[in-house]
Design a protein that fits this description.
This protein is α+β, with helices and mostly antiparallel strands. The chain has a domain of 90 residues: Immunoglobulin-like (Sandwich), CATH 2.60.40. 19% of the residues lie in helices and 34% in strands. The protein contains three helices and nine strands, in the order H-H-E-E-E-E-E-E-E-H-E-E. The strands form three sheets. A four-stranded antiparallel β-sheet has the order 3-2-5-6, with no helix packed on it. A three-stranded mixed β-sheet has the order 4-1-9, with no helix packed on it. A two-stranded antiparallel sheet has the order 7-8. A hairpin with a 6-residue loop joins strand 5 and strand 6. The longest helix has 11 residues.
């Protein structure tokens, strides 16, 4: 039995996005802070409170994680990306690069663990950006 050429091309195209298939579109990340209990926001979206392990979607754009804790100065970190090595398998079939780029799988987070030391505000001062009702 012979497979029709269009079906074969479709099958190869769908299976060629190697990074998306083999390594997924999210990274498991651990966030922690000292003191614990800080609210963690990824690009202004609440993720939870430290210590926190969660799935973070991969992205082509730079993203920031912000830690907020009442009585402490809010702090922000850049989540840096690196190239996902599995993507290079797409050299065998270039449309896979397009799919991996669209899903963000072409990148991975550089680190899978982030830690933030929270600094207390001087007594009696409340940071204007701190919003205890934010989450």
């Amino acid at each position: 039995m012979r497979t029709p050429l269009p079906l074969f091309i479709l099958l190869v195209t769908l299976c060629s996005n190697c990074a998306t298939v083999f390594s997924g579109t999210t990274d498991q990340v651990f966030f922690d802070s000292q003191p614990g209990g800080a609210a963690v926001y990824l690009d202004d979206h609440f993720l939870g409170r430290t210590p926190l392990r969660t799935s973070v979607p991969r992205s082509l754009k730079p993203r920031y994680v912000t830690y907020e804790l009442d009585g402490h100065e809010p702090s922000t970190q850049l989540l840096r990306n690196r190239v996902n090595g599995v993507t290079f398998i797409n050299l065998l079939w270039w449309p896979g690069f397009i799919i991996d780029a669209a899903t963000g799988a072409i990148n991975r987070l550089e680190y899978n663990s982030f830690y933030m030391e929270m600094y207390p505000l001087p007594d009696g001062i409340r940071h204007p950006d701190a919003d205890t009702n934010r989450d």
